[in-house]
Amino acid sequence: MTSSQIEIDGSSGLATYLIRDVAPLGGERVDLVLAGGVIERIEPSGSVVAGEGVVVVEGGHLVALPGLVDLHTHLREPGREDAETIRSGTRAAAVGGFTAVHAMANTTPVQDTAGVVEQVWRLGTEAGWADVHPVGAVSVGLEGTHLAELGAMAHSAAQVRVFSDDGKCVADPILMRRALEYVKAFDGVIAQHSQEPRLTEGSQMNEGVVSAEIGLAGWPAVAEEAIIARDVLLAEHVGSRLHVCHLSTAGSVDLIRWAKSRGIRVTAEVTGHHLGLTEERARDYDPMFKVNPPLRTAADVEAVREGLADGTIDIVATDHAPHTREDKDCEWAAAAFGMTGLETVLSVVQQTMVDTGRMTWADVARVLSSAPAQIGRITDGPRPQGRPLAVGEPANVVLVDPAVRRVVRPAEQATASANSPFGGVELPGQVMATFLRGRATVLDGVPVEQDGVSRVGASR
Amino acid sequence: MKHLLTTRGLSRADAIRILDTAGQMAATQSREIKKLPTLRGRTVVNLFFEDSTRTRISFETAAKRLSADVINFSAKGSSVSKGESLKDTALTLQAMGADAVVIRHQASGAPHTLAHAGWVEAAVINAGDGMHQHPTQALLDAYTMRRHLMPRVGRGVGVPGVGAGAGLDLAGVRVAIVGDVLHSRVARSNVQLLHTLGAQVTLVAPPTLVPVGVEAWPCEVSYHLDEVLVDLQPDAVMMLRVQRERMSSAGGGFFPSPLEYTRNYGLDAVRLGLLPEHAIVMHPGPMNRGLEISAEAADSPRAVIVEQVANGVAVRMAVLYLLLAGDVSQVGSHERASL
Ligand SMILES: [Zn+2]
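^ thats the input. predicted complex w/ zinc ion below
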């Protein structure tokens, strides 16, 4: 040991990790020490020596990112535990590099009261794979008529800040206005599923050349754009925060760009599948590619990639929507809308944005961690997320090997469902390790069963 | 040659072969004993998730004339309405040893899924799926046009009738397809097949009933029926069935009233008079007399609507024959998955 070297040991209760020679945000290589639940040290590469009880991770090829945060996950529990549970969904999240997910409100019962959001929050905590932040419904029962008790959810143990009727659009303009206004009292945000209902009655896929040919009822781009246009104007009028879920068309990107140029408080997300896939995949009527909003044209895909690269689109979300085999193994029209995404999204972003030179790993950290955490208002408080990789920060860290290429095997994923649109596809990049407040949830690419964590009341 | 799901994958040679085979089948139907032993011992299942007595009877007749055993499975009102899936039904048919499944389904792509999901080994024949395709309808329409118009339009000499046009395509034939193109599997199937056979197709409809994306189709589009009749001088006018419900707001509000539709897009005696003398009038049936077609037009000597029905049996016999007994090597190098 030379004089410049530092020796650490693992004497604290939680395991101490030395991640050697790793590249935070793809930048200069360092030695990273996680101890006591925080990032204890960041030192020049090769300067830290492991003492007793220290787990060493060789970071040679790895990029370190802050733990990923998903603003848009469907965990299905309560109500559809046959498709996913909070436990299986958050385990999948950990495998995908996430340390926090926002659980959408369209469960059964709907997450429209303090009681239900607290239940979801508690089950997430007990599962221990990733922080679960319930999204509260905007309207009672997602019915789009009466405001749900947004304040009670905000002031519950779950501290809800994101509200959405996702799966359905808040179509009534006065209800949308009231919701936008009301959440100002607790700095909430309305996350809108932008879908004009009358323009999309019976819709099965993007409206255009492919739908005309294969005879599936079309979901026109304007049905999304019309709602976004209305909502940004409402948000401007009342001075509130609006978040646009899973934006999918070139026109939507233009609208967000325009709204931001006017100073409107709007943020927007794109999903991994809208970055990676086009409507051409519908041609064989394979229900794995049935999703809402639908896969769009190549020009739309190009526009959302560009919008993400230039910051018009703030974040990437998964819209992880697990479904049972029965709900997908049928004819297209009878199949459920939705795709899984937690375990593939980082690879899709690497493939479409990093490997193409449009974004750096620092940008990836922004769109998949810090920005979604800021929109969800979880960067501070008792369990902060999306914070920078710096000494003293909570040790929410994901290690990625960008050089690995792997074929997606939906049946082998951690999610309880197998409806991945990337099944059989080779994608770049693999999450090698995920740390949630200094505890490894994934090591060597496989989930670490959480034996040290209380599972009381979470036996599922 | 494994399935018949769409006219899209059908090559010109495949299509002509089916039409020629249909001609041979039609010839047998003028004999005293109409029944052929060809498919003895084979089982054809008519799997109808959507009512269509005409189409079902046509397929049933075709299969029986070829001596196949026919099972009619009407899924409407059966366990399907209680949630039995297409998959479960398919597995049942597989267990019963069906050799061919003729499927009519309200969902576009259901026949494709049935053929490719690995649920059945039978040949799958699409008898109409949602707004997608109805390939045997297009084939019988092409067969009917060829009998009446070729080689006349081909500027040759010939007598319309059984066997007329054998070996020929529809090069040079001008066809107007009029009406609810948006929801029409008949239009989709015909545009593709007629294009493959060399015909020139013009779709005529109010803009609300033209699909977004039609620009990629190999045809022209017009909103003005009179202009098309006068300028194009079509050899065949194919009227599509229009559902009255389409004008209500619940049905989509596609046009303001039946009267306005009829004024602009209905085929009546006056418009009939604009056509060239040899032109034929077609309709897939059932007709809404007084809406898309007037009684005079429907019953005029130019109307070949009843004959289309008879030709349907011959064409379906040809398809069943080629799928279940025909020499694969002579037909099937092209687009095995589609035909
Ligand atoms: Zn949504």
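Strands of chain B lie at 43-48, 69-74, 100-105, 123-129, 174-178, 200-204, 220-222, 236-239, 280-282.
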